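Let's do one together. I've listed all components of the complex below, 848 residues spread over two lines.
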Amino acid sequence: MEFSNKRVELGNGIFLNLIKTNKFKSNLLSYYFIRPLNRDEVTRNSLVPLVLKRGTEDLNSSIQIEKAFEDMYGANYSSSVNKRGERHVIRFSAEWANGKYLNDNEQNSKVVELLRKIIYNPYIENNAFKKEYVDQEKENHKIRIESKINDKRSYAVNRCIEEMCKYEDFSIYSLGYIEDIDSINELNLYKQYENLLNTSQIEIFYVGDYDEDFENYLIDSNSVEREDVVDIIREKITASVEQKNMVEESLDVNQGKIVIGYRTGIPFEDELYNSLLIASDILGGGPNSKLFRNVREKESLAYYISSSVIKYKSIMLIDGGIEFENYQKTVNIINTQIEELKAGDFSDDDIEISKKSIKTSLESIRDSIFHISEFFLSQIIGKDSRNLKQVIEGFENVNKEQIIEAANKINIDTIYFMNGKK
Amino acid sequence: MKTFTNERLNEKILYEELSSGLKVYFMPKPGFVKKHAVFATNYGSIDNVFVPIGEDKQIEVPEGIAHFLEHKLFEEEEANIFDKFSKLGAYVNAATSFNQTSYLFYTTDYFYECLEILVKFVQSPYLTDENVEKEKGIIAQEIKMYEDNPGWRVLVNCLKAMYINHPIKIDIAGTVDSINTINKELLYESYNTFYHPSNMVLFVVGDLNFEDIIKTVKDAEKKYEINNFDLNRIFAEEPKRVNEKLIEDKMFVSTPLFHIGFKDYDLGLEGKEAVKKDIITNMILDMIFTPSSEFYNELYNEGLIDSNFGAYFTGKKTYGHSLIVGQSNVPEKIYERVEKLFSKDPTEFLINEDFERLKKNDLGNFLMGFNSVEFIANNFTDLYFDKFNILDYLDVLESIKFDDLLKRFKKHFNSENMVVSIVRPN
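Okay, and this is what the predicted structure of the assembly comes out as:
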């Protein structure tokens, strides 16, 4: 079963994507603002959703907004800022219980109206955001950025990327930088907000049940005349590694974290990319993988050890948590496993298992209202016109030679190690 | 076969008890691609003192043994369980909580083959001195990973502050020292007692056929000589007071983290009554500590808390507590403010209008939960072991009156049963 999806251009760079399904008890509406990822705007972009949440033109404090969503049978509002390759993507969503379970026909339009108010009709004073709101959110945002050290695993992964890509925009932290917060004020933040509305590519997704009236309502309410939309260039990827890098940090922790970054140089548009995904899965995808079997099951060195591929940058990452003194031993095993992968030392069974695992996780997208919209977004960003079924089929004919070919393009770039304090 | 239906949710659950004593429940989900099965035992980290099956003397086992057993059941003599599921394209996992151990898989194809493997591997432990030894290094790394997790540390310390004897205060995975005392014999003893089919439940959700499920389970399940026995778990008496008012710790974190706990003394409830207490207490907390409340906004606007602030109640038959959690540069101030608020007449901050709105909110959220097979599976087994059918949840929610909240508030929230755990940056 393939989703019927419809894509309508509502203005320069504004698209409405409608995915019709009655499988869920809820509906989802998401707005994605797509920006270039750069140091100049990343911190301000990250602050915008926090300030917007503080008040709209008529509901001018967050408590009123919260109460309104609760009253709409607990509609879930959320926002996020993420990087996808060298793009900064700002998302605003609402998911709400379908009115047919609640005998409430107004439910859909009420939630949509409120979400639109948050995005398009914020509370403003003198052509700027309210100073008090901006100042408070600046302080909160500092705490949020500082808190990244609380999650040691993702901190280690981010540190590895930061070191590895230090001359590329991809190294930029998606929440921005503490030292860039002080210069932000209610005026320049409002300017950036206007910039977001006027010059970003905007992808709107509705997933759920709808009729023609609702479709027309979404089209009419979101159509805007705009001028220039910021152009985002395809990020550069490198295949070769000029200088291998090893970074060690000593922190007050109980477990060592190792993260190794590799360059593959295989763009996601390339036919060989699917082979790379399978190679990475054989190496460290699941409990059947080489790393899990050797690092964890055979040598008892780690509880978690896995590998994954970062799509838009064609980078492969391995990460694991180990005893400090087992650093060299773990690196040696990882190196051996990669050499085996390159030499074709894996079975047809391993290939089949990886293909099935990838298929299951892709098929599972169909059961999640949120992942459906994320899938379509990813296809749009990647300028990939295939539907989910075609994406899944793309893995079927990958053979061993291609996997070996992809594996041989894996080049070690940076090792990050979080050590303890001696 | 029995069928439970809920018209409003437009969902049903089919049920059958097999002659072995194993109960099988199934919720059809037409149109869903994922098929999900959970095989769970009513056995978690708190069940560390018990009378083993067929014996008459109670024993105390090392901390972390339920979790250790969960790891070891994936071992088999010839093949590896992970491999078997992987070959069918299925994703398998397991989890141990304070109260239950569950084994689950989901798949899009070959469901019945996977179900057969699930039932067989959970019912046939293969433990050797060597494979038990090997697991210790892996679990030690899991323990160390949690030791570096400030959110976990602040919770465990809060439990230690509230509880004097109850095993809820011990870490689910145990300690590196305690797991080193675990051996094959202890594991088998625990296994044989707690993995008896009468202490377990199998729950399946997805686009499937119940008769095929039952047939698969019947063919796969092990035959047991004893069909039913009374499991004897022993809990030392827990005094009606807290252990310590304050536990402070230091870690590599950016901002201090805190958990304020209220220990519950209204215990021993099951089924509808337990669920009702749970919903009532959570509604009280939501009315005070969510972004839609006055108190939350006061603290937020003063810069004392950030959006991580929140509260929830959790409890079972033998324990229960409300937790108010967050991060703040002045955690002791939050404690004072909560204490001060709670010393007031609750009608000042528990308002009927908020209660009605929150009911609508909870109704919508519960409905939306049924989009996710994971939500259904997790909540089904959890409520099942509390002797409650998930399909009756909305009825209980709707039966709650505003006055129930006021009564519960006066009983549960007192400064005597209030503790705080703080983790500060070092």
